[in-house]
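Thread: "does anyone have the structure for this chain?"

Original post by V.I.:
We have the sequence but no experimental structure in hand. Need at least a predicted one for the grant figures.
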Amino acid sequence: MKLQLLGIDSNPKTIKGQSFGYVTAILYLSPSDSSGAEFCPLAKLADCKTDCLTFAGRGGMSKGNATFIAESGTELPDNAVQRARLRRSALFNNDRDAFMSLLVHEIELAQAYVARLSKKIGKKLKLVVRLNGTSDIRWESIAIDQYPHIFARFPEIQFYDYTKIPNRRIKGIKNYHLTFSYSAAPAFAPIVIKALAHYGESVSFAAVFRGAMPEHFLGRAVINGDESDLRFLDQSGVVVGLKAKGRARKSLSQFAVRAA
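Reply from O.Q.:
Generated one for you, tokens below.
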């Protein structure tokens, strides 16, 4: 079976971006340590592993609620989505050069696709890329060919991600936008302080809410982050409010904010 890394407007939220003039390509890997390598180093402190979006939508469904055990020992829903994410993760872990070459190829294919789509509908669309759909990898530290990172390889493309890592080294990378991902877990509070010190007060936070979304949180205005996934268009210094999805809706974890 041919391995495909990127999904193009593969969920209802990213499809909304087309009305703003953007087409989104997202890479979904196996989150946390489910692939045998740790792709989300702050997952334990953030208490977000059980609430992960990897279990939302088709990723959380299986016939008869069947599950399987990944090589890491993690129990996952038995479906094509989870198995594909494991295959992508295995390539990333075991043959990084092949993975990066395939990623470059698929981004180029996505560019061609967006050009064709723009011509078909008579509207100029732009490709944007999110590499950490269900992971938190420091892509700025992974070289590709003669380039220091994938962002330098495609300077004409806007990349964006959410991250819980408080010290990503993205200064000077003009085409990469990060939104800090908040967790209400008490153990995560020092990470929030570090993120503010590193990224500055202007950094926006994404927060998942169980219950009604407030107008203000952490002294900041809350915007509806479910209207689109285009975080690089957000005003600086806001809280991007997200409704709990998948397992997060009924979870007892401390990750999501329990709103009134």
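V.I.: this helps a lot. The mean pLDDT is 89.
O.Q.: and The radius of gyration is 18 Å.
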